[in-house]
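Possible regression after last week's pipeline update?

I re-ran a chain I had predicted before the update to compare outputs. Posting the input and the new output here so someone can diff against the archived version. Not blocking, just want to make sure nothing changed silently.
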Amino acid sequence: MNRYLVPKQGWQFLDLAKAYGVGVIVHALSGDAEISDAGAYYEVKTQKELDFSRIPKIQEYLGDDLEEWNYVLATLSKAKVEKLKQEIRKFFSDENNVKKLLSGHLGGKSVTLPQSLELAASKGIRKAVPSSYSEDQVKILQDELYLAVLGAINVSLWKYSKEYWVAVYPLPSNTKIRHIQDIRSKLKDSVKGFHRAGYFATVAYIAAKLVKEEKALSNGGKFSPKIGGLFYGVMMKTGNQPKPFTSGLFPLELLHTIVVSNEDALDMWLKIFEFTSFKKGYEDLALSLAKFIAEPTLDNYYSYARLHLRNELRKEGLKFGVYDADSLLEVLKNVEVS
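New output (post-update):
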C-alpha cells in the first residue's frame, strides 16, 4: 500500500483542497485512490503502484470544461486566471514536479492565496465594501497553490444567486476519489441553482441530495457513509470582485441515520427543498428544515414541524404530505433534548 500524508496547517479549505489534489494525482496515476481525515493530517492511499507513464492523465483534471476554475479563482482577474491555468498545466506535465509533491516537498516562490480558495480566511462583511480590494494578507508557496487548485476544481460544488455564491467541499471518510467525482457530477445536475431561502437552505439541500447519492453507491448492500460532513463557504458579490462572507461545517449525522432508518422522511425533505427552491412564500419552511437537519434540537424540530403543519392546513399552495406515526417516531428518536 502506498500512503501520502498532507499535514493540516490551520486553513480549512486550503488544507482540504491540497489533500484532494494529492488524491487526484494518485487516482490519475494508479486508477484508485482513497482519502481520509486522520486528525492532524489527511491521508491518501492506494493499493496499487503508481504508473508515472500516466502523467498526461492529470491534464484530464485540468480542462477548460471545468467551470470551477472561475469560482475557485473568482477573486483573480480573468487574465490572471488564464495565466495560472497555463502555469498549472505545465507544472503537472513534469514528472519530477509530481514526484516532488508526492514526497511532501512543496516549494516555489511565495504567492498570494486567493480568498476564493480559502473561504474561511475572511471575517466577513463588517463595513462598506469597495468595488475591489487587495489580497496581500496571506502568502503560500507556489506548489501549494497549484496543488490546492487541482483539488478544489475537481471536488468543490458551487451554486450562486444574484447576491451570493456558495461552495461546498466534502469532508472525506475513507472516501474514494471516484465516488466523490460521481456524486459531484450527479449533484451538479440534480440540485438546480441557489435556493431562494438563502445559502444555508442551499447547503442543506445539497447535503440531503448527497446522502441519497451515498446510499445509491451501496447498491443495495450495507450503507457506509462516504462523506463525513460538508465545509461550506459563502461569497458575496461586491462590485467587480466577490468577497468571502461566511463559512462553516454542515454535519451529516442526522441524514446518515435517517437514510437508513426512515428514507421516506428524507425523500419528503428533498421534496420540500426541491419544490420550494424557486417558489416564493416557502422560505421559512425550507430554512427551518435546514436548521433542524444541521442541529436536530427539540426547539428546531418544533419550529420546522409547526411550519410544515401550517403549510399542509392551508387551502392553497404546495403540499408535501404528512408523516405517518412510524416515520414521525423515527425522526423524533434523533431529536436532542437539552
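Follow-up from reviewer: compared with the archived run. Residues 123-136 have pLDDT under 50 and may be disordered. Marking as no regression found.
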